[in-house]
Amino acid sequence: MAVTDEIYRRAFVSTLAYCEHKSFELKEHFPVFMMGNSLGTWIRSKQKQSKTLSNMEDHLFATSRIDLLHHPDDTYLFNKMTREEKQAMFNTAEFMNAQVTGLRPTDLKVQKSLQRHLRPLAVYTSHGIDEEENKFIAIAEGTEMPIYAFTYGIELVQFFFEDATATKDQFVLDHSILARKHAQTIANLIAAEARMNEHSFD
């Protein structure tokens, strides 16, 4: 569930407005990286009608594979990624979703006002997630400005280790080499994108 605290929402909207001003008015490359539930908050701030987001409770705290929807060269974030790099990143590793509500490509298709701002790059896929209406966006990028959304717990792969005996958790995080390779590649892409911004705060 996206954070609904009014103070947080106002701060979120103000921050996005600041970034949009830098991108559109001042023509600065000002990338924005949204993690976890932030995409849901962004959708709520942009949507023209309610109920754009769909229920994800069946996938809450579940781990799933992530599949790229496009050739890397047809995206901005993964542009020039080689076939081998794509195989290493989008293979059999699984990542955890902590969203109660999420955005599906099918939701986006009926929201033209949102579709022109956002492009899905990857979706959750696994056993039982075969139908289009059951696929939720895992990674998305902006079409007009450098906004990048990651709706899964990238950081959990390397920095969180479950104590299954203490929590009796049914879900085991993927700490495999493939999962770590994915997380490290995303971190490197974020760092490279951020270096393209020359803005400084006084």
Largest sheet: 6 strands, mixed
Q: What are the low-pLDDT stretches, counting only 5+ consecutive residues below 50?
A: none
**Percent strand:** 15-25%
What is the topology, as strand order, of the major beta sheet? Answer: 1-8-7-6-3-4
Counting copies of identical and different chains, the oligomeric state is single chain
Characterization of the model:
The protein is an alpha+beta fold and 202 residues long. It has helices spanning 6-25, 38-46, 83-89, 105-109, 112-115, 156-159, 164-167, 177-195; strands at residues 32-35, 54-55, 63-68, 95-96, 101-102, 118-125, 137-142, 147-150. It is globular. The termini are far apart. The mean pLDDT is 84.
Question: What's this, in brief?
Answer:
With 202 residues, this protein is of the alpha+beta class. It is 36% helix and 17% strand.
Keywords:
single chain; 202 residues; alpha+beta; 6-stranded mixed sheet; two-stranded antiparallel sheet; 8 helices; 8 strands
Write the layout of secondary structure elements.
Blueprint: H1 6-25, E1 32-35, H2 38-46, E2 54-55, E3 63-68, H3 83-89, E4 95-96, E5 101-102, H4 105-109, H5 112-115, E6 118-125, E7 137-142, E8 147-150, H6 156-159, H7 164-167, H8 177-195
